[in-house]
Amino acid sequence: MWGLIVAILWFGCKSKTPSGIIDEEKMEAILFDVHIADGYISTIYVQDSARKVAAAYYKGIYKKFDTDSAAYNRSLNYYYQNPEKLQEMYKVISTRLDNQKAKLKQADSLLLKRRFKADSIKIIKTFKADSLAIRKKMKTDSSSKVKADAQIKKKKAQADSLLNTKKSGDLKPLAVAVQ
User: Fold this and answer.
1) What does the alpha-carbon distance between residue 79 and residue 25 come to, in Å, rounded to a whole number?
2) Spatial separation of the C-alpha atoms in residues 79 and 145, rounded to whole Å
3) Nearest to 24 by CA among 82, 96, 97
4) According to the model, what pLDDT value does residue 156 have?
5) pLDDT at position 173, please?
């Protein structure tokens, strides 16, 4: 008996979104996509192009969520008038955006590691090729051998320095660095 009364009070007192208003979960997803699109659009410098791209993105978002701009704007105004609901929605949106940012940062890090590895292999191959060329030019006497060894050590130091520079984050183009 008491359980029935509590259930009636619970569901009866719970505020529901009016008809014609997009429910909170769907609105969170729409706002998330809108903010992602807005972030991209803000990088477009030509205003006319930005407007065209924005219109296409928003139209795609509305289609994805089976709604239109009128229902979106009506719902957004409703949530503006209910800031506690909007604040809860933005906590979820903010968390999702932070997660997205972390994933992108991780992907960028992996890409930089791959580039560094490829650049390192090129540097090592260049060093070996230079070392072989120097050794081939060597004469058999000991003075030219000492000079050649000094040149090889210098090339190795340059290659090591370049690899250390790349590890520390100063990513100069390889063509400039190898010269």
Assistant:
1) 12
2) 81
3) 82
4) 75
5) 45
- Block residue for tokens 């992907």: 107
Q: How far apart are CA 9 and CA 15, in angstroms?
A: 12
Q: Is the pTM of this model over 0.70?
A: no
Read off the amino acid at residue 140: T
Instruction: Check if the beta carbon of residue 152 is closer than 8 Å to that of residue 168.
Output: no
- The angle formed by the CA atoms of residues 48, 53 and 57, to the nearest 5 degrees, is 150
Structure tokens at 5: 């009364």
- Please choose, from the candidates 46, 74, 45, 70, the residue with its C-alpha nearest in 3D space to the C-alpha of residue 58: 70
Residue 127 pLDDT: 66
What φ, ψ does residue 21 adopt, rounded to 5°? -105, 135
